[in-house]
Amino acid sequence: MKNATLSQKAPSVAGKPAGSSPVSQFAAIDLGSNSFHLAIAQFDGHTLRVIGRLKEKVQLAAGLDQNHKLSDEAIQRGLNCLQLFAERIRDIDRSYVTVVGTYTLRKAINAATFVKQAESILGHTIDILPGREEARLIYDGVSHNHPDLKKALVIDIGGGSTEIILGEQFKPEIMDSLSLGCVTSKKFFPDGNITEDNFNEAAMNAAIEVSEVKKFYDKIHWEHCLGASGSIESVYKVLFDLNLAQGFITFDHLKILKQKLIDIGDFNKVQFSGLTESRKSTFTSGVAILYGLFDTLNIDKMHIADASLREGILLELVEELKGNDIRHQTVHSLMHRFNVDQEHAFQVKQSAQLIFEQTADLWGIYDPIYKNYLDWACDLHEVGLSISFSKLRMHSAYIVQYGDMPGFSQQTKDSLAAIIANQKKKLYPEQLDNKYDPQPALLAIVRILRLAILFNVKRDNHNIHELHFIPEGQQGLVIQIPERWASEHLLVIAELNREAGYLSDHQKSLTIEIV
After folding, report:
1. What's the Rg (C-alpha) of the chain?
2. What is the reported pLDDT for 11?
3. Quick check: 5 and 46 in contact, CB under 8 A?
4. What integer pLDDT is reported at residue 222 of this predicted model?
5. Would you tell me how many other CB atoms lie within 10 Å of the CB of residue 308?
C-alpha cells in the first residue's frame, strides 16, 4: 500500500495543529464522455483529503458522429465548462494539477481541436488516457478507499466506455476497457422510447461486448464486486429510495428496475426521487448496461465504491510529489519482461546524458519531459529484439505505442514510439509531426539518441567524456574528437560519417573535427 491514504471527508478541525506538516492542494480534472469532473484534495504529508468537487454534464460523447468527428456544439459545451474549472484551480501549484481525457477524446479524430483550446483555458496540458491506463487509475482510487479488499471485481460505466478490472488488494491484475457507455448506448432507445425490445437490445449489446473477456472476470475469480461510477451510484440511489437496495445492488433489483422503466416508456418521463436531473437522460441506458454485465458475469451483488478515476489521479500526484514516478517503474518492468540488455541500455543512456547536457540549452530541450523521453528511449530502444533484430526499431516502437504502459498518456506513448522508430539509419522526420510535443524538440531528442547508440555500436564499455558537442543553431552539430580517441575508434568514426549523410538528406549537418 502506498503511504498516502485517501479520505473523502474534509477535516473537521478549524485551526491548524501546532507542528503539523505544510498542507498542499491537488486537483484532478476528468474530461469524461458524459460529465466533466473536478476533484480538489489536501495532502498534509500523510493523508489525502477530498475537500471539494465540481461536476458539469457535458455529454461530449453525444457530439461524436458516425465518422468519430466531434461536433462544434459539443466542443463548445466542454470549453464553457472548463471556464468554470479554470477559475477554481487558478491558485493551485501547476505541478499539482492533472487533467485527463477519456473515451471520447481517444476516439475523436479532431480531438486536437478541442484539446488545444481547452489547454489554453486551463493553463495545463491534457493527457488522453489509453483505456487500460484509465482502468488502472480507477482501480487505484477504489482499492485505496477499500484497503481491506481481497480478490475484487471493479466496474466503472462511463459515458463512452466501461472499464472492468480484476485485482487483489492494491494490485490490478487484469484490465479491460470496453466500447460501452451510457451516452453511446442511448442509440438503442430511438426517440427516447423505452420498450422491452429496446432495453433487451441494449443489455444484449453489453453482454456481447463483455463476452470476449468473460472468462477472466467470471464469479470464480473474485470475492467482492464494486461499482465505481456515477452511473452505477445513481442506480443504487434510485433502488435505495424505492426501499429495494440496502447496501448493494442485486440482479433481482435490476429486473424490478427494468420493468419500472418499461412501464414509464419514455426517457423524458423518468422520475425517481433519488435521480438527479443531470442523470435522467442516461439513466435507462446505464441500467441496461449494468443488467447485461450482471447477467453475463454472474454477479450476485455489487457494492458501491466511493472513489474512482479522480481519486486514482490524486493518489498518483502525491506519489510523484514524493519522487515516485510510476512511469520509471513501467519502463524497468518492460525491460525485464522483454529481456533487454540492461548494461548496454545503461551505457547508451550515459552517452546520451553527456550529449544532452552540452546541447539541451541551444536546442531548447532543457526540460524534464525531454530528459525523460531521452532516458526512456535509451532504456527501450532494443525492447523489440525479443521479436527480431530485423526491423528492430519498428518492433520496439510498436511495443511502446500499443503495449500497456501504466502511467503513460497516449500522447506520451506516441511521441516516445516515434523517437524510438528513428533510432538509426534512415531518418523519417515526418513521423514526428502532429504529435503533442513540438517536432523540433522531438527531432533533437532523436539526434541525441542516434549518436548515443552509435557511440556504443561495439557494445563495449568506453566513455566519451573527452569529446565536445557544439550545437550550431537548430540545424547543425560539431563533434570535436581528440586524434588519439579517433584512432582507437575507427568503426565509430565511420558510423559518424554515415550519420552525417543521413542528416544531410534533411538539411541537418553533423561535422566531425579531429583535434
Report:
1. 26
2. 35
3. yes
4. 92
5. 29
Hey, what amino acid is at 114?
Answer: F
Kindly tell me if the per-residue pLDDT of 275 is higher than 70.
yes
**Identity of the amino acid at 399:** I
Residue 411 pLDDT more than 90? Answer: no
- Full 3-state SS string of 169-231: CCEEEEEEEECCCCCHHHHHCHHHECCHHHHHHHHHHHHHHHHCCHHHHCHHHCCEEEECCHH
pLDDT at 503 over 80: yes
Contact in structure between 100 and 56 (CB atoms under 8 Å)? no
Please give the DSSP secondary-structure letter assigned to residue 308.
Answer: -
Burial 218-246 (b: 16+ CB within 10 A, else e): eeeebebbbbbbbbbbbbbbbbbeeebbe
Alpha-carbon separation of residue 468 from 347, 354, 481 (angstroms): 18, 9, 7
Cell of 125: 496540458
> Closest by alpha carbon to 159, among 140, 186, 131, 123?
186
Cα separation, 277 vs 270, whole angstroms? 10
Q: What is the mean pLDDT of residues 415-430?
A: 93
Which amino acid is present at 387? I
Comparing CA positions, the residue from 244, 292, 287 lying closest to residue 264 is 287
Beta-ladder partners of 29: 38, 99
Number of H helices, E strands in the chain: 18, 15
Mean pLDDT of 317-327: 77
CA distances from 452 to 158, 350, 384, 492 (A): 44, 8, 18, 11
pTM of the model: 0.76
Indicate the residue type of 441: A
Residue 9 has pLDDT above 70, yes or no: no
Closest CA to 161 of 176, 183, 174, 179: 179
For residues 450-484, one letter each, b for 16 or more C-beta atoms within 10 angstroms of the residue's C-beta and e for the rest, the string is: bbbbbbbeeeeeeebeebebebeeeeebebebeee
Distance, CA of 138 to CA of 175 (rounded, Å): 10
pLDDT of residue 22: 61
- According to DSSP, residue 17 is labeled P
Q: Are the CB atoms for 502 and 427 separated by under 8 Å?
A: yes
pLDDT tens, position by position, 150-173: 899 999 999 999 999 999 988 899
Question: Does residue 301 surpass a pLDDT of 70?
Answer: yes
3-state secondary structure of 40: strand
| Cα three-residue angle 493-494-497, rounded to 5 degrees | 85
Burial of 140 (0-12, 13-18, 19+ CB in 10 A): buried
